[in-house]
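Q: My labmate handed me this sequence with no annotations at all. I'd like to see what the chain might look like in three dimensions before we decide whether it's worth expressing. Could you predict it?
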Amino acid sequence: MVRSRAGHAWRRSMRWAAVATLGLSAALAGAGPASAAEADITGGSLTWGFKQTFRTYVSGGNGSPPIAVSNGATVNADGTFTFPSTGGTHDSATGATSARYGGTVVFSYPGHFFKITLANPTVDVSGGTAALKADVDLVTTAAEPVSVRQATIATLAVNGGNPGGGAGTVTGTSLAATLTSAGASAFNGFYAAGDALDPVSFTATTGGTGPAGPAVSVTPSSGLDPAGATITVEGSGFDPAANRGAGFYVSFGPKVDQHWLNAGVFQVTKWVSPTNQPTESRDKLNADGTFRTTLPISAAYTDSTGKQVDCLAVQCYVVTFAAHGSTDRSQDTFAPVTFTRAGTGGGDDAQQRITATVTGGPLTLSVAGSAVALPAVTNGQVASGALHDATVADLRGTNAGWSLVGEVSDFTSATGAVIAADNLGWTPSAVTVDDPLGGTVGTVTPGAVAAPGAGLGAARALCTSPTGASGGTFACGAQLNLGVPASAAAGDYTTTLTLTLS
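A: Here is what I predict for the chain of 502 residues:
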């Protein structure tokens, strides 16, 4: 397996040693109790960019988009990311802190065969040391996938009272971060353990120094008439100063990516802010962070893009989010709303909507054996044998296509005699392997026949699968045919066959 640094494509290959004997024989081988000073963390944020050079590299790729944030994470003007607090604890007596933050950042570069998801960072400070933990998922066709939860991906420098605390707040400012071996593995070797990462800054507040998190209730929230209903939405815990006092939207419709930039998918929206007076399209946010408004909704509608939305087929929500396209995710809430299907009449039927996520897997190559013995032959004859089956499993879920090619070097003997690589030819074969879970397997095509004398001295396809139909498992094999020149010296010959999957 070959792995490259950032900026280079990856390939996976497997090699088999091969030995051939001519004349006599022929062979081809291919935590403790809490203290009285410990308090719950109720707010704060963490700012980090992983590594500026990595962001620049990924931003130049073909991801769509190359870098994406979700679940509360936001992108700052300098390209770093801010993650909102999700809790934790701080001991004011010892300084021990475990500050958790939420949000997800995805680095995607299909052209270089990887997607890395970084989520839910945590800062742990204890005994004069500090560390940054996170969930990291690596999906790549060039190596086995990696999935770690709260792995220590960086150590943080602790010095001169930084991080420090006071008045219910813990603050760390521009803490130097160093990649750990676990972090290097999770990021697939782009950088080595010990490399410097972007500095980390964080705040964590304890006690009731700020407003409670935003919450929304909907009345009624279930059993609504699909033809139309008016719902009452009440909220609390909203911050009147958030988003520079511009307020937030209250909308109805399905969840979509970057909903704050795609408000056209919603059926109805009201703008709620501290300065608004109630109208058909606006309502007022009270000074204590509460509001009350109504929305007229129905189960089916056409959004502003012309797309038909059916809330009987997809789950729809009352959604709140910061107004005017703001990236501030602190005002986001999602309250589900359901409708009664026509004709059910509120009887005894019960329904549960089930969702599933398929993340996709790797593109892998395996071989049934490591040595193939060809029969003994005399000069001028052809020694034939079967290549061990090579199994290709395309579990990426993309149907992106693949090819498996083979190539050999010259056969050599211990005395220095040579038989040219092109003297080894093959007749490829390829079949699909049935999916035991009943899926529809793609198609595979064997490579062209290569005759001895015009054989594997150059790379030739053993089997291929086209774009659009490459998903599944496939077995590829070949009959090997080694043409022995009349002038070849008797002896044992060795070569190496390399199969490369890309």
